[in-house]
Structure formats: structure tokens, C-alpha cells
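User: C-alpha cells for Adenylate cyclase, please.
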Amino acid sequence: MQPVEVAAALQREAADKKQIVGQGRVLVPNAFVVELGPTDLERFGEWDAPLRSELAGMVEEHARDQGWSFVGDVEVQFERHEELDTGVFRVRSSVVATPDAGGHRTQGIGRPRVVVQTSPERVVLLTRPVTVVGRGADADLRLEDTGVSRAHAELRLDGGTVRVVDLQSTNGTQLNGRRVRIATLTDGDRLDLGATTLVYRSES
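Assistant: Done. Predicted C-alpha cells:
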């Protein structure tokens, strides 16, 4: 596996997850995680920061060529996954707003979003009709929390309304301290999934 293969996979991931957000503007993810097996992570780790910066730059250049927009700085992280063989990797992505992002980036203020109360906090824009939240590799919003099911809940966007739907998770979904199966969210609502808290924001 070579860095150019990873760069190509990141560009495909951006293309696969692009969303039209208004007036023909195309929004693509800006936060990428490359899941690597132990051997590849050790090999890539020798050039960790420069390589991640180079990969991010290649994604930005590709996006500019395509006329795509971001809501924040493009970041690439490497993550260790013991089950992955040498030469095998996976990519996942999300839309994470960066405060005061400028240039060709689209501001996310006023758009429906959730703030993941981790350290550091993550701001994730809700740009697609359904965002799956969970611990599994296929989740759109992935939480590294053993108390969260692989596919724990969905955040469903319908016009200006966002609903949370629990997917029969093991530990349930709590809205402002009350367990719910399905509920409409309002600005400032607190969702607890396992030990992780998400705060819903719909206003500036």
C-alpha cells in the first residue's frame, strides 16, 4: 500500500459523500480517518504529520478542481485497527465545522448540527436526510464508546425538522434525561448515547 492509494481513496470518499446544500453549492467531508492495520500504521507513523498534511492537501486540491466546498479545515488522521491485514485499509469521513473557517469554505452557522461533547469537541453538520450514529465502521457519525451500539440511532433531517430515532440499541437513547424511541429535536436538546453526549443546535 502506497500513500497515493490512500489519497485516491480519500478523494473517492469525498466524491461519494458530497451533498448539494443550496444554490448548487456542493459540500464534501473535511475530516477523514484512515483505518490501518498495525504494520501499516507503524510504517506510516514514521512520516505521520508530513504525510497527513500532504494527504489533506491533495484532497483540498481535488475539491478545488471539482468546485466543491468544505465547512472547515481538511484533516486526515490515522487510526489503528488490529483486525486489518497489511495492505488493507478503510476510510471514513465526516463534516466538521471549524470556527471562522474562510476562503472557499461554506459557513455552517445556522445549519442543523450536533456538537459531540468529547475532548476536543466535534461539530458535525447534518447535511444528509439520514445520519446514522453508532460505534460501527458503517456509521456516518462514529462514536468510540463501548456503551454505544454499532448502529445506535438515526438523526433524520426533513426540511427544517430533525428527529432522533433509536435503532433498538442495547442501552437506549436519552433525550434531556428521558429515554425515547423517536422524538423531534429543538435547539439545545441533549442526547445521551452510552457515555457520550450530543447537543443539538439549529440556531446561530
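User: Anything notable?

Assistant: The domain at 1-99 is CATH 3.30.2320.60 (hypothetical protein PF0899 fold).
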